[in-house]
Every structure is written in C-alpha cells, then in structure tokens.
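Lab manual, section 2.4: Encoding a predicted structure.

Procedure: take the sequence of the chain (392 residues), apply the prediction step described in section 2.3, and record the output as structure tokens. A sample record is shown.
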Amino acid sequence: MHIFLNAVAASAASGLTYVRNIVPHLRQRKSLQITILTSGYLREEFVDSDNLKFRIAAEGYSTTRRFCFEQNTLPEMIRQSRADVLISAGNFALRRSPVPQILLSGNALYCSQDFSQDLLRRREYRAWLDLRLRSWFARRSIHWADCTVAPTEAFAEQLQAWSGKKVVAVHHGFDEQIFRADPDPLPPEIQRKLKGSESSLRLLYVSHYNYFRNFETLFRALPLIQRELPGKKLKLLLTCELKPGTDISSYDPRPAAALVRELGVQDNIVQLGIVPYRMVHQVYRSCDIYVTPSYAETFAHPTVEAMSCGLPIVASDLAVHREICQDAAIYFPRFSPEALAGCISQVAQSPELAAKMSASGLRRADNFSWSRHVESLLGLACDLCNRKYRSV
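Recorded output:
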C-alpha cells in the first residue's frame, strides 16, 4: 500500500508534534510506501529512506491560497506518486480526491461558539471572518472525505453534531522515550528563571499565547490562590512571553499583559519563553501542579506529558480533558477563576490527593501510543483500499 500524507498544514504546535511522531512509525513499516508533502522547515528533520519520500510545498499559505493549491495542484501530485490512499492532515480535504481519502480533523476552534464570541468581544473582526471561512472549508471537508478521524471520542461527537456525518475517534499517542530523550541542560536563561522560583508552589501551563487557552481566567485566579494559601509563595510558569513578536502565534498578548499589571501579579508569573520541545520534560519535572484553563481542545497533548512526569492536573471541565486525564485531574468550570483557585488550593493542601492523582496520571499516560495510533490509521486506510477494489 502506498500512502500519500498531505502535511502542508503542519507548521506549528500540535501539527508539528503529530508529524514528528508518526513519521518514525511509518518508516518502520517496510511493506508501506509513503510520500509526505510538507514544508521545507519540517523536511530538514528527516531523511529519505527506501519506503519514505518527501515532497516540498511552499510555506506561508493563506487559507485561500492553500485551498487553491490543494484543490488544483495536489490531485496531480497524488496521481504521479501512484498512491493508493490520501491522508489529509490539517482539517481540510480534497473535494475530488483521485484516491480514497482520510481526513484528520483536529481544530476545535472551527466549531467553538466560545472562540467565535471571544473574537467578537475582542473586536478581532478580521480574525472572526477568517474563522468563518475556515469553518466552512472544514465542515465541507468532512463531507468530501471518505473517512474523518478525530483524536478523541469527545471531539468526534462534537464534529458529528456539527457536520452531520460520522467521525471516527483514534487517540493520538505519546512516546515517553522520545519525550525524555534529550539529556542536555536547559538554556541558561531558562535555568535562571527556574532557580528563581525555587521554594515556591510552582504551577505550570505549557502553551503559546492563544485566546482559546484562556490565560485570563488563570491570571484572575492567582490572587485568589494566594489568599487561600497565605503561607506559600506562588509562581505560575509559562512557556511563552506576553510580548508582541516573541511567540509564533498571531494572537495579541498585550491585553493579557495589561491584566497582569492590573491584578498586581507580575511577581507571581515567570515567563520562560519558548522552551525547546526536546527539553520541556525538565520544566515539567521542576513543577508541582499542571494547570490548563483552555475552553476548546481536541486532545490536549501537554496533559499527557504532565501525567507522564507525575504532575497532578487542574483542568477546565471539558469532555476532552475528562476523557484524557480521568482521575489524574480535578476539574473546574472553564470561566471561573474562583473555582480554579479552589481546585489549586485543594491539591496544594492535600499531599494524599496529589499523590493519588500523580499515580493515576502515570498509569493513564501509558495508555497512549503512537504505534497504536498509526496501526489504527493504517487499518482504516486498508479498509478504504479494499472497499475501492471490491467496487471495481
């Protein structure tokens, strides 16, 4: 079987994580032929092998340009490769794929009312219009694909209700060996910041600055947490900086920075900046509690990383978080800083509860495997191929 993987959309965050993790598992399956269409940036991380070839696409596509490229140019590339199945990674599918097509749908924002309303509240009208355009493409793509795959049961149900078409759930994976493989020390500036937070209760949030990550609810909770834990120093560690131009995202962090100043919690926040993924496990191990107030999620990879490092988790009460974390987390209403503060206080003041959550998380993290994910994906691809040949 020959798989054509369209990974043009894998340009940041979870998209890069996904491709980086599945490529080694695809390469191991010598009976497969794989062609991967990706950016030059990601191409540099891999070498060709007998069963794995790369093709390079231009970078920096707008939504419209990417749609035009995929609908007009990509079909001929697939035909030339003689692929049997197309896997479209990036929420958009070919309208008329020359081969059976699996769509990987992993963006909760396209069907999130919270995000749409958030953009309007912030008067981000251009971003709101872009969201509407992308949402239309994403919804139609589910109908164009032969099979749509979501990374959790919770998100699959959400997509089904949104699109009216069946969606299959296949959990994303986690490879602890790859996650912890780099023994090199953290950059000196990050080490200095971590050292300055020693002897404090250290909360960690691993994310670029994005509106849907709901940083503001977390910031509003900090003075409330400090009030409930008067005898403890409190530090929130962020893997981003609340300054324009210091992050890869296009979201404006200035209102969040202004809120930090207004709340007077500047001394409680440690802005580590971007931490190389291969080293971020050292940051997890330096902290006490992982917290995620996000109001939209599809899988939430950092929660699995946190569980693998034994951190108890305080998470917004989303169906995705409950599915992934189970008993390793306690949950709060996503826009309630008071409830978030209460959960942090509960975990911080109960070593028994924290230890129980930590043990649950270590067990839970073992349930996620990239190898099993790839196996399930290839099973779907084989089924599509068989259906195609039976119909000929």
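Check your result against the sample. The first strand starts at residue 2 and ends at 6.
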